[in-house]
Amino acid sequence: MARRGLARWVLVASIVVIGLTLSAAAAVWSTETQVQRTQQHRDDLAKVARIESQLLTGYVDEETGLRGYLLTGEAAFLAPYERAARATPELTTALRGSWTAVDGPTELVDALEDAHDSWVDHARSQIDLVGTGDADAASSVAETERGKQLFDAIRDRERALADWVTAAEDRTADRLAELQTRMTGLLAATLTMLLVVTVAGCLVLWRAVVRPLSRLAAATRTVAAGDLAAALPATGAPEMRSLATDVTAMRDRLAADLHGTRQALDALAQSGPAVEALRAALEPVGGQVPGIAVAARLDPAEGVLAGDWFDTVALAPSRLGVVVGDVAGHGPASAVFALRLKHSLLTALRAGLAPGEALAAVCADLADAPAGQFATAFVAVLDPDEGTVAHANAGHPAGLLVGPARTWTELDTTGPLLSSVMAGRRWRTVRSRLAPDDVLLVHTDGVTESRDAGGAEFGVEGIRQAVGASGTDDPQRVVDAVAAASMRFGGNRPRRDDHTVVCLQRGRAVPGARAPADDRTSANR
After folding, report:
1. CA–CA separation, 392 vs 74, rounded Å?
2. Where in the numbering of this chain does the HAMP domain appear (predicted)?
3. Is 506 helix (H, G, I), strand (E, B) or coil?
């Protein structure tokens, strides 16, 4: 196992287990098929036995009725004879059909039918003698002895047929018991094999994966706690040793990056107090209201000043405003413009303006801004009591409204981007339904425009796949999953733009909730 690797060992073991399982299943299926056939044969024999018993009863009724008629001469005694005579042909036909189904010797049924036909001919001759008034001749010793011999022949033929059925039933019962014993043995062997394989697999996994992984995890936690010199054990299967080697390389890379980061921070602290103050001013205030969970993440493309920004503000006990913006460019100038837009939009929302009105008011104040300076912005107001989200989008990537069943609704652009040349323009405010557990996901274009080595973009589809793969609706985990997936997609190449992801989720139970507004109704304000 150490030379071949755990994956190859598991593949070989899986093939062996699958082969044994299929063989056991085939044996069980074959035995079960034989059991069913044997049970059907047993049932057919039982049917033959029932018909044979009914036929014998008919023969006895015929003989009894005839004897009573011969002794008394009264026609009433012939009633049992006549009933049995009418039923006997049908029973004989049924016996032949069932007899064929059990592969019985046809000569036994033929002999029984011939014996009965002979007795019937004799019985009719006696009935005719009584009918012509010659009852003494019909009851003579010779005729009586002749009738007894013929009926004894019927009984002998019937007994031979019954003995064959009994022997066949005994053979069938023995065969059925044998098959049932075989079935029990097969099931016991299969269960034993599965138990042995399961125990062996658990032991191998424990020794080769679980125990080494636990040791590696404990050592990794030590590194995460700050001890970058902690040893990372490389034990277990080759795959586990390779993982430990990769984790060690990652630790070494993080240590080197940490050293560089400390140097950069030292330089920033010595030469850029104004930049630090500007960065602190762009930090989100992080307003909250009951019924809305908020999580966000901003990863600058370079340095500590980003062109992206976001914030939330509590507008009322049940209304939460959210603003996400992206200013063209990076550095101090873009950060100053971002700070201006951020505070202007938050102020407009606090003043009670709808998202579209807030964008229009802020754009009107940008007359003194350079014509080449512009930004995109997404502004929304969430009301968990009403179950609504009202948004306006100034050239920003569409917000994504995600339902619990992974239904996606795009909150598209409702007006142009923000710039001094757009003064006087209007932005629509669009109102959508916000159901319990719905998630509003807002991002900047740096997330979707992350490119792989072939030049393909991460795109909105990448966000959807990341949210689906996260397997959770927890806002913080969704934010981390989307950000990490976009960064992995871009590889180790330097990022060209900031990455910002904001996630808001409406809780399931909101006290005093009112009926939600109609979905996707627009209002131009």
Report:
1. 111
2. 207-259
3. strand
Question: What was the pLDDT predicted at 305?
Answer: 65
Task: Compute how many other C-beta atoms are within 10 angstroms of the C-beta atom of residue 205.
Answer: 15
- Determine the pLDDT at residue 520: 40
How many Å apart are CA 342 and CA 331, to the nearest integer? 16
* Rounded Cα distance, 438 and 322, in Å: 16
CA–CA dist 95, 383 (Å, integer): 83
Show the CA angle centred on residue 193, arms to residues 191 and 197, nearest 5°: 115
Q: Which of 310, 256, 302, 250 has the alpha carbon at shortest distance from 275?
A: 302
**Do 320 and 438 touch, CB atoms closer than 8 A?**
no
- Report the pLDDT value the prediction gives residue 521, as an integer from 0 to 100: 38
* Secondary structure E strands in 120-229: none
pLDDT confidence of residue 208: 77
* Averaged pLDDT for residues 90-104: 90
CB 182 within 8 A of CB 31: yes
pTM: 0.49
> Which residue has 């109609």 as its token pair?
518
State how beta strands 408-411 and 399-402 pair: antiparallel
How far is CA 404 from each of CA 319, 438, 440, 490, 507, rounded to the nearest angstrom?
22, 6, 11, 29, 11
Place of tokens 């047993």: 42
- List the domain boundaries for the chain: 6-194, 284-523
CATH topology for the 284-523 domain = Phosphatase 2c; domain 1 (3.60.40)
Q: What is the largest CA-CA distance in the chain?
A: 147
**The 499-506 sheet, strands edge to edge:** 292-299, 499-506, 439-443, 399-402, 408-411
Q: Answer yes or no: is pLDDT of 369 > 80.
A: no
As a whole number of Å, the end-to-end CA separation of the chain is 71
Helix (H, G, I), strand (E, B) or coil at 159: helix
Residue position matching structure tokens 């032991």: 203
Q: What is the pLDDT at residue 277?
A: 61
How is the chain split among helix, strand and coil, in percent rounded to 5? 60, 15, 25
User: How far apart (Å, rounded) are the C-alpha atoms in residues 297 and 444?
Assistant: 11
| Cα–Cα distance for residue pair 495/492, rounded to 1 Å | 9
Which residue shows structure tokens 């929304």? Answer: 380
Asked whether residue 2 carries a pLDDT value surpassing 60, the answer given is no
What are the tokens at 485? 């997936």
Residue 268 has pLDDT above 80, yes or no: no
pLDDT band at residue 210 using 50, 70 and 90 as cut-offs: confident
Triad 500, 502, 504: Cα angle to 5°: 175
Residue 524 contacts residue 428 (beta carbons within 8 Å): yes
